[in-house]
Automatic annotation (TrEMBL):
GO terms for cellular component: cytosol. The active site is at K137. The record marks D177 as: Important for catalysis. Homohexamer. Keywords: NAD, Nucleotide-binding, Oxidoreductase. The lineage of its organism: Bacteria, Pseudomonadati, Acidobacteriota, Terriglobia, Terriglobales. The gene is gdhA. Substrate binds at K101, Q122, K125, G176, S396. InterPro entries: Aminoacid_DH-like_N_sf (IPR046346), Glu/Leu/Phe/Val/Trp_DH (IPR006095), Glu/Leu/Phe/Val/Trp_DH_C (IPR006096), Glu/Leu/Phe/Val/Trp_DH_dimer (IPR006097), Glu/Leu/Phe/Val_DH_AS (IPR033524), Glu_DH (IPR014362), Glu_Leu_Phe_Val_DH (IPR050724), NAD(P)-bd_dom_sf (IPR036291). This is Glutamate dehydrogenase. It comes from Candidatus Sulfotelmatobacter kueseliae. Residues 213-462 form the Glutamate/phenylalanine/leucine/valine/L-tryptophan dehydrogenase C-terminal domain. GO terms for biological process: glutamate biosynthetic process.
Length: 464
């Protein structure tokens, strides 16, 4: 059915194009932010045709503009007594449906554009969880790798000394992300408590003995596998017996592997920034425990896996290659769980050539726009990050609820809630894709489903 465009309103395609041109002009040299906005706006074409009211209040121009961007100096002393200076950020993107919520990333590649892409994605992801959380993201170009615990602590204390004046349990609640795990959250929380003289749920991912939630460390990986299971059910298929590729070897990868094993699947790869491990025998529970000790306690490199398990092959990272050998291993399912743009068009071609039937994104925006298009065109089961990895932030939301009630729920209770939330997110994406005329396209389903709730809240709250 043709949709009438009211007078004075551009057709959605023209409107979206003009917003995209302005985003690129106003945010130069931020390719990841452009990419994230482009993907969402492409899907919104379908929604805007039905909702001209959004255009008349310039809703897209407002949703792509962060409510607030904080950028600050983080000076600290290293173990030799030298002064080090890093840059800290917090992007408070959108608070239409709740306090800003989203992780902190400590990695040398961190810059304003990367955090803006992550904050933008977070807005729609948080909306999909059905919990009342706005979107934010932050971090620093600090690299925790190779630093002593004392150096990490001094950095975290300096970072929080500035950040504390901008956050709070009803304002902005950060969590972990790449390079920010339990150790860092502990140091950050300690400094917040000391400066503000209050013990509140200002961060999630806290330790179990001081306000943390059971299942929060596992949540992103577990949730991603629950989402994959839901996708497979729509084709009367299941994870049992499936060969699975997992990238990364950090928090998301570890618990993706654990849940895949629970479902009877066979994960065969892990990686880090130095290279890829392929273990044709499969990564079983004993090997996973070894990886967890290597990464979380010894803070070692994944290449050591091949010394320990002789049948495994290590393929070092080769920056001259325009593809990642991990995605060229023959398998049924892929769980990218390391970082953005880790699946290029060439990687996507390799996955499809080898018969991969499912991609569930644990990492944020791991597929380039070209790779995403290839998965959609091939009509494989494709779970985009903002839906498939929303279990982490959903469980952070559950941690906030427990903190407010001053209660702790059991492991089973949190896991059950997480599972139900992932089923609901899949259903929203699936039904929204169908309703807007692109059945099976969960990218459209997630983008439109996440957007509508935020957009309607913004309409209700006036021009703020
Ligand atoms: P971790 O720091 O625990 O692990 C990250 C893993 O990815 C490490 O193995 C790391 O290797 C690898 N990696 C990171 N950057 C690069 C890079 N530029 N090139 C190659 N490998 C890289 O982080 P998480 O597991 O928490 O996060 C992984 C992904 O999941 C990120 O995209 C994050 O945004 C996303 N995510 C995380 C959530 C969470 O709850 N933690 C929630 C939702 C999404 P190395 O050690 O060599 O750097």
């Amino acid at each position: 059915m043709a949709v009438m465009t009211p007078p004075g309103i551009k057709v959605p395609g023209d409107y979206i194009e003009s917003v995209m041109i302005s985003v690129k002009a106003k945010n130069p040299a931020e390719p990841e932010f452009h990419q994230a906005v482009q993907e969402v706006l492409d899907s919104l074409r379908l929604a805007l045709a039905k909702h001209p009211e959004y255009q008349s209040v310039h809703l897209l121009e407002r949703v792509v503009e962060p409510e607030r961007v904080l950028m600050f100096r983080v000076p600290w002393f290293d173990d030799q007594g030298n002064v080090q200076v890093n840059r800290g950020f917090r992007i408070e993107m959108n608070s239409a449906i709740g306090p800003y919520k989203g992780g902190l990333r400590f990695h040398p590649s961190v810059n304003l554009g990367i955090l803006k892409f992550l904050a933008f994605e977070q807005v729609f992801k948080n909306s999909l969880t059905t919990l009342p959380m706005g979107g934010g993201k932050g971090g620093s170009d600090f690299d925790p790798k190779g630093k002593s615990d004392n150096e990490v602590m001094r950095f975290c204390q300096s970072f929080m000394t500035e950040l504390q004046r901008h956050i709070g349990p009803d304002t902005d609640v950060p969590a972990g992300d790449i390079g920010v795990g339990g150790r860092e959250i502990g140091f950050l929380f300690g400094q917040y408590k000391r400066l503000r003289n209050e013990f509140t749920g200002v961060l999630t991912g806290k330790g179990l003995g001081w306000g943390g939630s059971l299942i929060r460390p596992e949540a992103t990986g577990y949730g991603c596998v629950y989402f994959a299971d839901e996708m497979l059910k729509t084709r009367k298929d299941k994870l049992e017996g499936k060969l699975c590729l997992v990238s990364g070897s950090g928090n998301v990868s570890q618990y993706t592997i654990e849940k895949l094993l629970d479902f009877g699947a066979k994960p065969v790869t892990v990686s880090d920034s130095n290279g890829v491990i392929y273990d044709p025998d499969g990564i079983d529970r004993e090997k996973l425990a070894w990886v967890m000790d290597l990464k979380n306690v010894k803070r070692g490199r994944i290449r050591d896996y091949a010394d320990k398990y002789k049948k495994a092959i290590f393929m070092p990272t080769d920056i001259k290659l325009e593809h990642n050998p991990l995605w060229n291993v023959k398998a049924d399912c892929a769980f990218p769980s390391a970082t953005q743009n880790e699946i290029t068009a060439k990687d996507a071609a390799n996955l499809l050539k080898n018969g991969c039937k499912l991609v569930a994104e644990g990492a944020n925006m791991p597929s380039t726009l070209e790779a995403t298009k290839m998965f959609l065109d091939a009509k494989i089961l494709y779970g985009p990050a903002k839906a498939a990895n929303a279990g982490g932030v959903a469980t952070s939301g559950l941690e906030m609820s427990q903190n407010s009630q001053r209660l702790s729920w059991t492991r089973e209770e949190v896991d059950n809630r997480l599972h139900k939330i992932m089923i609901a997110i899949h259903q929203t994406c699936y039904e929204t894709a169908e309703k807007y005329g692109t059945p099976g396209n969960l990218v459209n389903g997630a983008n439109i489903g996440g957007f509508l709730k935020v957009a309607n809240a913004m309409l209700d709250q006036g021009l703020v």
